[in-house]
Amino acid sequence: MLVIGGVHVRLTESLIQFSVSHLELRVRGHVSSGTLGPMSSDKSSLRKQCKAARNALSNIQQADNSHALCHALEAYLDQLPPQRIAAYFAFGAEISIDPLFAKHPRHQWFAPIITPEYGMKWGTADPSRLIHNEYGIREPSDLVKTSTRGFDIMLLPLVGFDLAGNRIGMGAGYYDRALGQLQDKPILIGCAHGVQECQSIAAEPWDVRLDAIATEKGLIWLS
């Protein structure tokens, strides 16, 4: 697998347009050093294990992980033309990607707005113009999109993941419904702390697999 600037990358048409002659190319090993849980179809149990592992990280560890993950994503985003990116504002011990918004203003950034019917709409991801919803999650104050269509990239917060591209969310199905609206699938990148990796997660018929995983250890492409 190729690494550009310390990041696992696949050669998409967008990346081929850019010269990488000035970047180091080398082979990199596996991202993960450990996984959670035995092979299981019980997502509820895995969700609890993943949350416990994530919540056990100190504030310093969480901040360090966020910094390293953002560095990996920056190296990837720097190679792309302007993109429409669906992102998120971290809640609780979710890994934060906040630094990306200010560092990459040429991309259009969006973040979800939770609706009463367990759906998602989208607003501009401007950290200076946020409100807190009924769950205490930061959301954009302006509504600019009512569907998930039209994004080039989606950065998803994960509760758990495996290296087959399966994911565990919070359990309410917000992202499942949002991804179900897709016609032209964007690049799906799951964001998590490395301790949230699982050996195997049972896939449901409606699940949409991730294209890549970003943790503090790097960005790994799964397809």
Automatic annotation (TrEMBL):
Family affiliation: Belongs to the 5-formyltetrahydrofolate cyclo-ligase family.
BP GO annotations: folic acid-containing compound biosynthetic process; tetrahydrofolate interconversion
Metal-binding in keyword set: yes
Necessary cofactors: Mg(2+)
Catalytic activity: (6S)-5-formyl-5,6,7,8-tetrahydrofolate + ATP = (6R)-5,10-methenyltetrahydrofolate + ADP + phosphate
Organism listed in the record: Umboniibacter marinipuniceus
Highest taxon, organism lineage: Bacteria
Alphabetical keyword list: ATP-binding, Ligase, Magnesium, Metal-binding, Nucleotide-binding
GO molecular function, one term: ATP binding
Record protein name field: 5-formyltetrahydrofolate cyclo-ligase
EC numbers for this chain: 6.3.3.2
